[in-house]
Amino acid sequence: MTANVAVETTPEIPLWNDSTHPLAARVDALVGAMTLDEKIAQLYGVWVGASDNGGEVAPHQHDMEEAVDLDALLPTGLGQLTRPFGTVPVDPALGALSLQRTQARIASANRFGIPAVAHEECLAGFAAWGATAYPVPLSWGATFDPEVVRRMAAAIGRDMRSVGVHQGLAPVLDVVRDARWGRVEETIGEDPYLVGTIGTAYVQGLESAGIVATLKHFVGYSASRAGRNLAPAPMGARERADVLLPPFEMAIREGGARSVMHAYNDIDGVPAAADETLLTGLLRETWGFDGTVVADYFGIAFLKTLHGVAGDWADAAGTALRAGVDIELPTVKTFGAPLAEAVAEGRIPESVIDRALRRVLGQKAMLGLLDPDWSPVPPALDGADLDDPDALRGKVDLDRPENRELAREIAEKAVVLLTNDGTLPLARPRRIALVGPNAAEPTAVLGCYSFPLHVGVHHPQTPVGIDLPTLRDTLAAEFPDAEITVARGTGVDDGDLAGIGEAVEAAREADVVVAVLGDRAGLFGRGTSGEGCDAESLVLPGAQQQLLDALLDSGRPVVTVLLAGRPYALGRAVTESAAIVQSFFPGVAGTHAIAGVLSGRTNPSGRLPVSVPSGPGAQPTTYLGARLAQASEVSNIDPTPAFGFGHGLTYTAFAWSDLAVDAEQAATDGEFALTLTVRNTGDRSGTEVVQLYLHDPVASVVQPVQRLVGYTRVPLEPGEARRVRVTVPADVASFTGRDGHRVVEPGDLELRLSASSTDARLTATVTLTGPERRVDHTRRFHAAFTQEPAAQA
């Protein structure tokens, strides 16, 4: 007789949970098993705030939306959780616990066990209470250093991933077209190549940490009429193709970005959220993007309320889905019941929902959210006692010393010295008059998407959460033997003149005056810089110019320091200040970096990512202007900047010499090679930034007088020289021709090796030969630089 042997059996794993199968097959199986309501539920998010006691998240009550009932929504599933850490102040460990408990609830409530994607803002660091506030993107651009930005983004991504976040809503790849626009601080600069290279590095860093990077705003948002937020963006197809789209092309192809956020604006009457030729035709069919397209917050509803291209919520939902938007954010409005009803009525085909759903589920599968071993416990809580929230408080540090050290490195590299008559570095001054509205303001270093200014201002009873030394603090440490007198003078934008007399008196008693001026970041009119804080002109806000002029009249040397989110016209200070130091919201270590530049501890190496205007009203203008955009005898308005794009001084001197060109002719599918020597002729170490500009004297369509096509940082010790070689592919000379296709045309070119857009040092005239050549998004984007030691003089 045969004995009965117990055989263990393993329940069959559903195909969509089986990671041994191809992703597409898993997604198809899951789509096929879902009801319409379950499908739609994956296509929207809900705006929530984590609980500071570790309980589940609570829906955020926003004045633009009705209250959301999570209990009613969760049985069918949920696509995303909007900003659990970035909505209210919450201890990071307890926020992670709150998110963990909520994800467990979401997964258990729907029959497929699918959790939500949690997304957060990360424009200048993880926008969470207690997280490091890094310099804003305009400072990233000022570094001209993609490598340090890549490291910063990786650090931000690791912090986000550690507490359970999956997606970051950054970087902003909008190219500045009008500096009056409030969101200039969120951009990387006014040149598409600089924006593309720095932005791509950020994407690479964020994605290396497992965070889905989200490119925004696609496309045209920064080109709004008069620099107004959420305004029409009048432009031609060529400006869109040659100025605004290249950073997105680069970040998708080279950065591996997995998400794109549509812009709010319309172009020639077509809102971006409704533009099928943009979101499907160009982005997916031409460029091959296979990630998700998410809505900018409330952007789908805006198709009805602001654009007037949809008659009701269902119409707005169908229009966006057909165009190629996959996910409604920040909460459910149009993709909920209105969409389900429209499908039932035959107004919207279920196939467009399935198309978006496949992209959403595919991304969730890539994030491991469909795997059978998925756990809601984030890495930061591994091994922790999840039943004891009080013991967790303070156990997760999002502002570690290594974060702050990285923030310091970026801030130092981003400080731009605009002018200097020799007053800087300061030589042990006995008496310093520290004057201005930002002299003793801790948050003057922060942008509008930093947590303290974006969220914390609504919770004044909650501590800031991070250490923010003022410039008064860091100058006192930098010059311990100096007597520092502080005078506010005036507010950032209150127009108050009452304190100017006191400030001037302090100035007259000092050896040197440090005037600390600029912006206050905020949202929707609560600041002078930031989202919804557009400027009528580029005069300094409030009475700051009157203060500055009075200080210049004091007879003492004035060092003008700007903590700002955009460039400003500085009037007399351009020629009369002893020095001008420009910093764009430099983050937690910003005042330390500025103090180091003032003392000479740090040799400045930042370069302007945006031009500084000579006058406050000559907008819109950037250095990318064509010949007709330059100063001329037929207009009384001179748009020539006070300081051009790429400008920046140091405390040493550099000589450029010995330009050699391997061959002065190349085919339209070839390349040129140029070599030059850069020598530090000063007495201290420093970094030169070699910038390569292309000038096309004759083209079939009007071109900018010049445009950046490459750059490299060259660090040198005193007396040291390096031989810098740059290989320039013909592709970088391409532009959109008359027929709408990008072409490389034969003819002469000037390759200008420059210290800035206004300071060409060496120029090579070269010629492209052969037939006109058509190129596309697979073209070569970069001029490649190498460096090696040069023979000593």
UniProtKB/TrEMBL annotation:
<dbReference type="Pfam" id="PF00933">
    <property type="entry name" value="Glyco_hydro_3"/>
</dbReference>
<dbReference type="InterPro" id="IPR036881">
    <property type="entry name" value="Glyco_hydro_3_C_sf"/>
</dbReference>
<dbReference type="InterPro" id="IPR001764">
    <property type="entry name" value="Glyco_hydro_3_N"/>
</dbReference>
<dbReference type="InterPro" id="IPR017853">
    <property type="entry name" value="GH"/>
</dbReference>
<dbReference type="GO" id="GO:0004553">
    <property type="term" value="F:hydrolase activity, hydrolyzing O-glycosyl compounds"/>
</dbReference>
<dbReference type="Pfam" id="PF01915">
    <property type="entry name" value="Glyco_hydro_3_C"/>
</dbReference>
<dbReference type="InterPro" id="IPR002772">
    <property type="entry name" value="Glyco_hydro_3_C"/>
</dbReference>
<keyword id="KW-0378">Hydrolase</keyword>
<dbReference type="InterPro" id="IPR026891">
    <property type="entry name" value="Fn3-like"/>
</dbReference>
<dbReference type="InterPro" id="IPR050288">
    <property type="entry name" value="Cellulose_deg_GH3"/>
</dbReference>
<dbReference type="Pfam" id="PF14310">
    <property type="entry name" value="Fn3-like"/>
</dbReference>
<dbReference type="GO" id="GO:0005975">
    <property type="term" value="P:carbohydrate metabolic process"/>
</dbReference>
<protein>
    <submittedName>
        <fullName>Beta-xylosidase</fullName>
    </submittedName>
</protein>
<comment type="similarity">
    <text>Belongs to the glycosyl hydrolase 3 family.</text>
</comment>
<dbReference type="InterPro" id="IPR036962">
    <property type="entry name" value="Glyco_hydro_3_N_sf"/>
</dbReference>
<dbReference type="InterPro" id="IPR013783">
    <property type="entry name" value="Ig-like_fold"/>
</dbReference>
<feature type="domain" description="Fibronectin type III-like">
    <location>
        <begin position="688"/>
        <end position="757"/>
    </location>
</feature>
